[in-house]
Amino acid sequence: MFKSLSAIPKKLAIQEKYLRGRWSIAILFAIVALLEFTTPSEYLFGYFYTGPILLANSRLSRLGKLQITLLSAALTLLNLFVPPGEAIALATVANRSIAVMALGVTGYLSDRNHEYQEAIAIAKAELQSQQQLASIREDFVSTLSHDLKTPMLGAIETIKAFQSAKFGDVTASQQKVLETMARSHKMSLQLVETLLDVYRNDAEGLKLQLAPVNLVALAEEVIATLTDLSAARRVYISMSYGESDFRRSLWVNGDAVQLQRVFVNLLTNGINHSPRGGKVEIIMESYASYQVVKVIDSGLGITADELPHLFERFYQGHSDRQAKGSGLGLYLSRQIIDAHGGIIWAENKLPLGALFGFRLPAIPAL
Asked: pLDDT at residue 102 above 50?
């Protein structure tokens, strides 16, 4: 009820504005018509009908604007015969015909301009709505991630305290349970941090701490951290150097922390897609102007439908995995590689398996 009462003054204001517009149009018509019909027909005042037409553009409906334009044209031509008894010269007819065309063009252009203004207003409103929605979404994700991280970190520290026997002796079977709980909480914490980073990167762009990085050393560190996961999945991880059997250094100018996340995401993806007893191979290739890293799993491969969407946010593909992911790892990896000026891609590796690779600009060996 109160809402409807508050809307009454707004309606009255709109009606008052509408009536003022109609009166303004009528007064302008009267002035121009008076000038037209009280002077000889060779004096052309019909161009002044553009005033009512332009006023109608923002105050009347499309039909009303058309009626005003037609009325202006009709009055301009009518002045050839009213007042009667005047000789009609050919030049006068030509001038008034040109004036009628000008009025028609004015009506058409004013109508088109009004449409463009409405379209721009709608686009601005939609853009503002999207920006507000994006801002709300970012605030929500940031708040949610922060609120989730705090209890997770607390739970991890509590589990560590149990593992170190601070609350009493722990049996071997209890240690296994605690290790599983700790691993689960760490994975959940990593997911929350990844989610927060993805939204932050989308909103603000990825900020890199660039320095010379050896991709080989980075890969070896990540392999060491994933030993437990690969052992639990019974997947063997190996590393080679393309056509060479000798260890190399692949130097790039990059952010070691962010590139480490790429290795973790690609290797974890390969482990989860490989069957028990399978293998994930990392191939390091060095070229004059760029360095290439390839991660090849022994899973079922990638379907043609999946390929275009693998690096999209929240895309998980087919469920041949041993463990379900969040659909954020590959998307975040693409963000990181793009920020480094590199290229990331995926392809099938026949007869079985998938290849995920990335390429980064090389720097001279240190």
From this structure: yes
